[in-house]
Design goal:
two-stranded antiparallel sheet, 4 helices, six-stranded parallel beta sheet, single chain, globular, 26% helix, 2 domains
């Protein structure tokens, strides 16, 4: 069975990263191995100009791996934006659950982060595979609505629905 993916979605500055960073230790404390996938539609660099690995890529390597005793990173040319399922199947090993930040258009279950002060509409509905809301106000969207700071209850939902 493939590793379950739950997307944490929401408008900019709604608290997606904060929710993910609070859920990770809560799920780890419960004995689960958690992986994350962060979508950045603007691109990113982990390889810096002048460094050996950067020079390898500049010379034309289609993939460069940077490794040390405690971590490994792969910089690989790709021809398109890959789906969450493709990234999971190709790169994520030995995880019990994947928390994806962003990817609001994917078919996987979603927890939407909502802050009333941003005065914006919800991004998702039940038809978009919305699993729950994490909000600073009570909302009725036909799915459970948790207080944005109730990490234990949100982790309970993930654990009961996908990990047990």
């Amino acid at each position: 069975m493939p590793t379950p993916i739950i997307s944490i979605v929401g408008k900019s500055n709604s608290g997606k990263t904060t929710l993910v960073e609070k859920l990770i230790p809560e799920l780890i404390k419960r004995g689960y191995r958690v992986a994350t996938i962060k979508h950045n539609k603007h691109g990113f660099d982990i390889d810096h100009e002048g460094k050996d690995s950067w020079r390898h890529k500049q010379a034309g390597a289609c993939a460069t791996v940077i490794a040390c005793p405690t971590k490994i990173a792969l910089i690989e040319d790709i021809d398109r934006d890959h789906s969450l399922g493709e990234i999971r199947d190709k790169y994520v090993k030995d995880a019990d659950v994947i928390l994806a930040e962003g990817y609001k258009g994917n078919p996987f279950p979603k927890i939407e982060v909502f802050r009333s002060e941003l005065k914006r509409e919800l991004l998702c509905s039940k038809e978009d595979n919305l699993l729950a809301l994490a909000a600073d106000v009570k909302l009725d969207a036909g799915v459970p609505c948790f207080d944005i700071n109730d990490i234990k209850s949100i982790a309970d939902l993930i654990e009961n629905k996908f990990l047990k």
